[in-house]
Amino acid sequence: MNTCKLLLPSCMISLLCVPAFGQFSFTQPERLFLEVEDGKIEKPFKVTALADAGGNQVVTLKDKTNKKIGKVPGSEFYEGSIEFKINVKKGGEYLIWLRKRWEDGCGNSVFCTINKAMTLKDALVLGEDGTHSKLHWIRLGNKPFHLKEGVNTIRLQNREDGINLDMLAMIEFEEDVPLDEQYVPTGAEKANIKPL
To answer: What is the pTM of this model?
Structure first.
């Protein structure tokens, strides 16, 4: 190691000289991406082609579908869900993102649960944003969600029709970074996990 000496009027300071290309080790936050069409899909959701989507496919719920089918007797929900069982190697707090295209402002959300049954008490609304007619990432809520090490279950449930679902992202939350400065997925990210 080299030592540099700096002379100041009344004292002498020794500084450690660090080489310009020193080795630094930063732990990269976990970033998990999957294609929605790889989930366990229940009708009336169906896989359709879309050129700008990751994998050139989306899971679609056509406009006016819910008006035709109505809610399942004895249930608070319309038919149709997508389930993902994912193996997470690094447990922790994650921000959950969905890449979607709403057809218009009337159909702009799905229900979501993470490691919970799909009940009205536990269902979170993913969406309700004003960006439609183009593929766009939206975040679930304003806080991270805990994903345990091992198998986690994420469910998307039919809430409104006229929607196209492309990708899910689970981005590890960086504790020293404010929420609005956390990593935001852009475009069609490359899927790096598949549901079990």
So the answer is: 0.85
pLDDT digits (tens, 9 = 90+) for 133-143: 999 999 999 99
The pLDDT, as a whole number, for residue 22 is 53
Helix (H) or strand (E) segment spanning residue 67: helix 65-69
- 3-state SS, residue 55: helix
pLDDT above 80: residue 186: yes
Angle at 117 between CA 112 and CA 70, to 5 degrees: 65
The helix (H) or strand (E) run that includes residue 96 is: strand 92-102
Kindly give, in sequence order, each residue whose CB lies less than 8 Å from that of residue 141, ignoring residues fewer than 6 positions away: 96, 124
72-90 pLDDT, tens digit each: 888 899 999 999 999 999 9
Q: In this structure, what token pair is assigned to residue 130? A: 């004003």
Name the strand (E) or helix (H) holding 68. helix 65-69
Protein fold of 28-181? Jelly Rolls (2.60.120)
C-alpha to C-alpha distance for 153 and 68, rounded to whole angstroms: 29
- Cα–Cα distances (Å) from 166 to 11, 14, 175, in that order, read 64, 57, 28
In whole angstroms, what is the distance from residue 114 CA to residue 119 CA? 12
Residue 44, phi-psi category: left (phi > 0), alpha (psi -120 to 50), beta (remainder): alpha
Length of the chain, in residues: 196
